[in-house]
Amino acid sequence: MTTTAEHPEVDHVLVETFLRICADDTARAGLDAAETTAWSETLWHALAESGLTRVGIAEAAGGSGGTADQATELIRLSGYAGAPVPLAESLLLGGPALAAARLPLPDGPLAVAPVPGELIAVRAADGWTVSGRMTDVAWAQVAEQVVALADSAQGPVVVTIPLSAGQVVAGVNLAGEPRDTVSVSGATVAGAHGVLTAENWRERGALARSLQIAGALERVLEMTVAYSKQREQFGRPIVRFQAVGQLIALLGEAVAQARMAAETAAGTASSTDIAIAKVIAGEAATAGTANAHQVFGAIGMTLECDLQRFTRRLWSWRDEYGAERFWAERVGRQIQHDGVPGLWGVITENSRTRNDSKEQA
């Protein structure tokens, strides 16, 4: 597996520690158990005790310190491991939002409402009074608090809502991860306005899922290559058949495209780069999983095969925080607004970023 060779600022020890902690809970038995209980509590506690659930958040804000590059690498690796915990929600979504709003970070896992504006917030003497219904909330059934971006007369408000103050209707996505409906009526909660916009909120979610997709696709590639070397047909490994080799090569292209786009977007934090990354990640997830399942054949969809655990995650994540069409239209509108100079800027800036990365490596 490739990890930090291209990024010397990412600590190899951090990566090795994370993968070692994940090893037991992301093996077959651990992932089976997580689909029954909706997550792995033991894995979450192990990561939290190591400080890995707060990497990239300043110590003064209640985090573990570290860099944004380290946080994004951990999110990518969580996709690679199939880690059944809300790590992306803590490192890139809810955690940083609370830190920016100067609100305390909870000790336990965070749930995040993906759609901004589903709640209405009214200024109160001791905080904000919120009401509304949040849909597809990631990890609500296993968390103590949900972080959301509410609408108010003062503008968007980052609020943190104790789930004891609301009603949770449990649900899951295709991968078995919690995606719940949370209703709240007249609860007074902590919040801060002027911190994030609705666009910022969606972009953070899109970047998180792009990074997870890149990691999961890399794992799918490794499994596909290993299977093609072990599976024999007509007296030789199927990897030696040209058609199978071509499928694996196409899968490798999808992995490289998704990772490059996600890491570029994480490095630049550009709205356009994030939109492009989510488009590329979604397309790579669709094409990559199709090629992997062709190599595996029917066995790839069975419960006994680990491939389906990752392809179901990929199919779920590609649609969350906006599918390819949503972000492609956004890029198109931006380029249309900026005209030819804007299009040329997108092309040349991305080229410079890739060249700089190669030089640093």
Question: Layout of SSEs?
Answer:
Blueprint: H1 12-25, H2 28-37, H3 41-49, H4 68-81, H5 87-100, E1 110-112, E2 119-124, E3 127-138, E4 145-150, E5 157-162, E6 167-169, E7 179-193, H6 198-230, E8 232-233, E9 236-237, H7 242-268, H8 271-296, H9 307-317, H10 324-360
Parallel strand pairs: 1-4
Antiparallel strand pairs: 2-3, 3-7, 4-5, 5-7, 6-7, 8-9
Brief sketch in words of this structure:
By secondary structure, the chain is an alpha+beta fold. It is built from 10 helices and 9 strands.
Folded structure, characterized:
The protein has ten helices and nine strands. By secondary structure, the chain is α+β, with helices and mostly antiparallel strands. Mean pLDDT is 91; it is low at 353-361.
Shape: globular
Q: Pick out the low-confidence regions.
A: 353-361
From the alpha carbons, calculate the radius of gyration and give it in angstroms: 21 Å
Strand content: 15-25%
Mean pLDDT: 91
Note the run of SSEs as H and E: HHHHHEEEEEEEHEEHHHH
Q: Approximately how much helix is present in the residues?
A: 40-55%
Alpha-beta content class: alpha+beta
Give the N-to-C terminal Cα separation.
17 Å
For the secondary structure, the number of strands is 9
Characterize the main sheet: 7 strands, mixed
Name some characteristics of this structure.
single chain, alpha+beta, 9 strands, 15% strand
